[in-house]
Specification:
mainly alpha; DNA polymerase, domain 1; hpI Integrase, Chain A; 3 domains; three-stranded antiparallel beta sheet; 16 helices; 6 strands; about 5% strand; elongated
């Protein structure tokens, strides 16, 4: 029999009920009315005890919502909700690459659901999410699988917040462990020299700037002279992936390089006009540029050439990881700075924190410490 109780510092009533395994669960009813809380607690238990199938559970929740609020609960099938979620995401300040990743995940999720994608989203269960994860794990790395799973978790958390779900079926689905993560390593100075010897002028600049700033390919390709202030001695940009504001002091080898680029560039708005044009043609994506860099790696003997010949493993087989890519230049910056004795806090401030947890861990280091760090990078 479910019961309700209140916590000392909360205005809401909490429901206490048993799930299908006989384990007691406590969950906020998000109401200050004890009468409403009892009705919600009864519904929680009926759903958690699996006394109702998915369709009946959804109907019970909607009846409760209507009874308590006087309004119809929101309703959508999974396919339509996914489409609306993507439309909402497209209005946020997200990079084109992030939006492409969201669309790709949604497409694969709906493909895995098959005809169930046209059922009400409230009919989704944990088994659907586990099946999605396991289907991916059979053909891609655990790192890629976990990225897709996290996006689906974001989507379903949104559905729960908006009232389409009583419970998030993905909440208890765990990400994969193991050694399937992509292997990346830093370049050596000798390898960078190999690349620079083969690269044209623009790719030479992209490579050098990536090392001197620790930033990603898309940020370097779209960098404008409006972002670069040689008089003040700083580059200010907002990273495309995380939206983080970065300020990099222009000192040492970075300053020498930018002066050469300015003299050779003329009046063009972009530091790397051809790369910027390719990104505009690709609607902000870096796939083409990444492929060009891979071709450069192959020419330098630093990566195996891609082949279209069959390996006998089929298209569903996991792809072999390649250790070097343009992103490896970011690893190179971090590696060089740490090898030069630069404190972790300064390194993270320069290349940009990857998460809120990282931002909380490291404090602002000051522009002079950042400048000293850049001066320790080699002249390429």
């Amino acid at each position: 029999m479910p019961s309700v109780f209140r916590k000392p510092k909360s205005p809401y009533w909490f429901a206490s009920f048993k799930d299908y395994q006989g384990v007691w669960r406590n969950k906020s009813t998000r109401t200050t009315s004890k009468t409403q809380a009892r009705k919600i607690a009864e519904t929680f238990e009926r759903v958690a005890a699996r006394k109702l199938n998915a369709q009946k559970a959804a109907e019970a929740v909607r009846e409760l919502f209507l009874e308590l609020s006087g309004e119809e609960a929101p309703r959508a099938n999974t396919r339509d909700f996914c489409a609306q979620w993507l439309r909402n995401k497209s209005k946020e300040k997200l990079s084109p690459a992030t939006l492409v990743a969201y669309r790709n995940t949604v497409e694969q999720f709906l493909t895995t659901l098959r005809e169930r994608a046209d059922d009400d989203i409230s009919h989704l269960g944990k088994s659907d999410i586990v099946a999605f994860r396991n289907t991916l794990a059979d053909r891609v790395s655990s790192e890629t699988t976990n990225k897709h799973l996290k996006i689906v978790k974001m989507l379903l958390a949104s559905a729960k917040r908006d009232g389409f779900l009583l419970e998030d079926p993905s909440r208890s689905v765990k990400t994969l462990g193991g050694t399937g993560a992509r292997l990346r390593r830093a370049f050596t100075v000798a390898e960078i020299s190999q690349l620079l010897a083969l690269a044209d002028t623009e790719w030479q600049s992209l490579i050098k700037l990536a090392v001197y700033t620790g930033q990603r390919l898309g940020d370097m390709a779209s960098l404008t002279w409006e972002d670069v202030n040689l008089d003040e001695g700083s580059i200010r940009l907002r990273t495309r992936k995380t939206g983080l504001k970065i300020e990099v002091p222009i000192v040492g080898p970075l300053r020498e390089h930018l002066l050469l680029v300015r003299d050779a560039n003329g009046a063009d708005r972009f530091l790397h006009p051809r790369a910027a044009l390719i990104m505009r043609q690709q609607k902000g994506r870096t796939n083409t540029l990444s492929n060009h860099f891979i071709e450069l790696l192959v020419s330098a003997g630093l990566r195996d050439a891609r082949t279209h010949r069959s390996t006998g493993k089929g298209r569903s087989a996991q792809r072999l990881s390649q250790q070097l890519s343009f992103h490896s230049l970011r690893h190179t910056t971090v590696s060089m700075l740490k090898h030069a004795g630069v404190p972790d806090a300064v390194v993270m401030e320069l290349v940009g924190h990857e998460s809120s947890a990282m931002s909380a861990r490291y404090t602002h280091t000051g522009s002079e410490q950042l400048a000293q760090a850049i001066r320790k990078l080699p002249v390429l």
